[in-house]
Amino acid sequence: MSNGSPKYWAIVPAAGTGKRFSADIPKQFHQLNGSLVAQHTLSRLLSIRVLEAIISPCDSSSGYWSKVPAASHPRVSLVTGGQQRADSVLNGLLAISPMAKADDWVLVHDMARPCILPTSIGKLITEVADHSVGGILATPINDTLKIVTPQRNIVSTVNRAEYRAAQTPQMFRYGLLKKAIEGMLDNNKIPTDEATAIEYAGLQAIVVDGRQDNIKITRREDLAIAEAIMKNQETGY
Fold first, then answer.
1. How far apart are CA 141 and CA 130, in angstroms?
2. Of 160, 183, 180, 184, nearest to 170 (Cα)?
3. Which of 50, 77, 151, 226 is exposed most, by the fewest CB atoms within 10 A?
4. Residues linked to residue 11 through DSSP beta bridges, in sequence order
């Protein structure tokens, strides 16, 4: 650990094409409650004053970024994205390597989660601040979970109390996260989120209770749900 207080950085991967979204325009550039999805997400992160910089690995040559005012903020940088999410996150980590220390904190957030509340981010930062590894926002499972075969036959019902739905931001020490992602990619493994890489490295993170309204826009109908959420949120920022 360094003698000084750790700094906080954010990485917001946005290089994906959103295959499940089924649209010619990437989902981060769709209209949502008067602004583009990316504008909402970056604006909410910019309200977190402790963040030194917000790095978005993406297709920075896309003309759509000119319609995202927050992308021009001094604390926001667009860098080249990768083929997979993990590649993009690693590019973001490399972009801050000249400035970040091993024990600094990195918050990785989905660009497609524009409904994140600043209070939830603050809660994550507060509850994970003294942890040696990091933690993630996650919510309990409300639905009954079934294990099914590829033929859609139900095998069994699992105890949902033992499960959580992972969200973002996911917050980890810079050095540990970088090493964990590099190690997994070097072994030709693709982590589905940052916590997966941390687990693969044999480390344990903690879970911080998130909110059910921190949805990820994955399909077209999620835009309508996100708009309804935004109109009823008390963002407080």
1. 27
2. 180
3. 151
4. 55, 108
| pLDDT (tens digit per residue) in 103-152 | 999 999 999 999 999 999 999 999 999 999 999 999 999 999 999 999 99
| Cα–Cα distance, 161 to 184 (Å, whole number) | 29
**Phi, psi torsion values for 137, nearest 5 degrees:** -80, 140
In a domain, residue 128? The reply is: yes
Tally of domains within the chain:
1
Inter-residue contact 170 to 134 (CB < 8 Å): yes
Do 164 and 138 touch, CB atoms closer than 8 A? yes
Q: Which two tokens stand for residue 150?
A: 């590829």
Q: Has this prediction a pTM greater than 0.90?
A: yes
CA atoms within 13 A on the CB side of 146: 7
Burial of 181 (0-12, 13-18, 19+ CB in 10 A): buried
Asked if residue 89 lies in contact with residue 11, where contact means CB atoms within 8 angstroms, the answer is yes
